[in-house]
Design brief:
By secondary structure, this protein is α/β, with parallel strands linked by helices. About 45% of the residues lie in helices and about 10% in strands. The radius of gyration is 29 Å and the shape is elongated.
């Protein structure tokens, strides 16, 4: 648990940042006395039916932000549990695994009983759990990992399962009210795991014996089977499992996506029927891919955590998760450069802010109250444009330009900038270069570009970005553009192969006046395409 200064705690009591708003709601639960279990429990759940995606990380990152905000408000200890529902039966074979056809025979078996198609772990469930933990460990999250398979089979869930047998009729009443009539006929909150086939069965119960804690049902072949609900012999349907898990663990806070929001009252009722107060919730909007479709674990659309980290820092990803969690956002590659630059803008602002402003700043939440200083002398967007103009193959090319702008900067003194330069080159090579489309200038644009090159040749050395921007602006004004935005768009499309670009005066300052003149000449000669 972190130790926050008194002025931070005072500011936290009225802070408007969403993690503090949620933390204050949670604190009200224990206004009279701390929890009997000795800590406030935050939970995040994970369904490992497919490879972990970036939304899973977001859930843990955002929950951690609320946890840290709570710790700034209270001395009550906290704990975060990441719970994997890996006893769930595999309903369909994911599309993004090797040799998916080989998994067909394991449908409806628990994910921890399905062979690992990657050949690295004990099962498919173990593989996905390992990937999740690796992702979370990369970001330094403090959490306890719980596998549903272990939770059910070890007996940790037995008490609540026996209580569920006692409250079976009442829980069924809650569930049946939410189901279509056809589904009601075969529904049961208990899903037996067949003692012979190992398959998770979706069958109605013939009897639930609350006294013995046993269920009786007919299997798929019509054979009557009686088994205890304890010891990992059954699992709960996913909605009852949600509420039962809250009751078993004593969960105080859990957030989940909007697709769960209509079930919140079900989860809460079941938790209360099992003898525990429902936790506080936070519902966030879903992430969308470049087509505006919901990101899916089984489809593998959108960006993975590893893909984001291939082009940007983990802190920039955390910022993306912090921003407007209740607004649906596109999560694709083109958001990365903008997010990187916004992260460093927040870092620079933090230095001069008072405590009240600092705890509203996203970097306070990303870095648990102690963010580093930014050493980004050049924006990530500008590094990308430099890489594009120079067709850079490595970061050393970019450092040649950076030194013109910041002579004292080196890879050793500015490690963040050095890392960003390498990532910018990779982003350019992978994401920008294949999409670059240069075009020939129109007669009007050709005349304006020729008219821009000459003042640059005549310009004295050492002009700053503003003076160079004025030269560009004046060149456009001397020609008959309907709108100067068309002039700058022409510069980007003819010289950089993109419809958008940097403030061109700043680009010239970094890229170099002679280099820019040469770029214009190549563009006019049609040598850039």
């Amino acid at each position: 648990m972190l130790d926050f200064a008194p002025e931070i705690r005072a500011a936290a009591e009225t802070a408007k940042a969403w993690p503090f708003e949620e933390a204050r709601k949670l604190l009200k639960r224990y206004k009279k006395a701390p929890p009997e279990k000795g800590y406030v429990l935050f939970e995040t759940g994970y369904g490992p039916s497919g490879l972990p995606h970036i939304g899973t990380f977001g859930e843990v990152a955002r929950t951690t932000m609320v946890r840290r905000a709570f710790e700034a408000l209270s001395d009550i200890p906290t704990k975060l549990i990441c719970f994997s529902d890996d006893l769930d039966g595999m309903r369909k074979v994911p599309e993004n695994v090797p040799n998916p056809g080989k998994l067909e025979e394991y449908l409806q078996k628990p994910l921890t009983s399905v062979p690992d198609p990657f050949g690295t772990d004990e099962s498919f469930g173990h593989h996905n759990n390992a990937m999740l933990r690796r992702f979370l460990d990369t970001f330094g999250f403090e959490y306890e990992f719980i596998s549903a398979t272990d939770f059910y089979r070890s007996g940790r869930f037995d008490e609540v399962l026996l209580r569920a047998a006692e409250q079976y009729d009442k829980i069924m009443e809650v569930m049946l009210a939410s189901l279509r009539e056809e589904r009601q006929q075969s529904y049961s909150i208990f899903l037996p795991i067949h003692p012979d086939t190992g398959r998770v069965l979706y069958v109605p119960m013939k009897n639930v014996n609350a006294k013995t804690g046993e269920i009786t049902f007919d299997d798929e072949d019509g054979r009557e089977i009686t088994m205890p609900v304890t010891g990992g012999n059954v699992k709960l349907q996913w909605k009852p499992d949600f509420g039962a898990r809250w009751a078993a663990l004593g969960v105080d806070f859990e957030m989940y996506g909007k697709d769960h929001s209509t079930n919140t009252h079900i989860y809460d009722k079941i938790c209360r029927l099992l003898g525990a107060p429902a936790p506080e919730h936070y519902v966030y909007e879903l992430f969308l891919d470049e087509k505006g479709e919901k990101i899916s674990k089984s489809k593998g659309n959108g960006i993975s955590i590893d893909e984001w980290l291939a082009y940007a820092s983990s802190e920039s990803l955390a910022l993306y998760m912090f921003q407007k969690p209740r607004t649906a956002k596109r999560l694709f590659f083109d958001v990365i450069p903008k997010t990187v630059d916004e992260y460093h803008q927040h870092l620079r602002a933090f230095v001069d802010q008072d405590p009240a402003k600092r705890i509203e700043n996203p970097v306070w939440h990303i870095h648990e109250g102690d963010p580093p200083k930014s050493d980004m002398e050049v924006s990530f967007a500008m590094l990308l444009n430099l890489a594009s103009a120079a067709s850079a193959e490595d970061k050393d090319v970019l450092w040649g330009f950076i030194k013109k702008y910041a002579p004292d900067a080196t890879p050793q003194t500015h490690p963040g900038l050095d890392a960003a330069a390498a990532l910018a080159v990779r982003y350019f090579q992978d994401r920008v270069k294949p999409e670059k489309t240069f075009r020939a200038p129109t007669d009007l644009e050709r005349a304006a570009l020729e008219d821009l090159a000459q003042p640059l040749r005549d310009a004295p050395e050492g002009l700053d970005a503003q003076a160079l921007q004025q030269i560009v602006y004046d060149a456009g004004k001397r020609h008959d553009f309907e709108n100067l935005r068309d002039w700058f768009k022409a510069i980007y499309e003819v010289l950089l192969g993109a419809s958008q670009g940097p403030r061109f005066g700043g680009f010239i300052q970094l890229f170099g006046v002679p280099e820019t003149i040469a770029l214009i000449e190549k563009g006019l000669a049609g040598e850039l395409g």
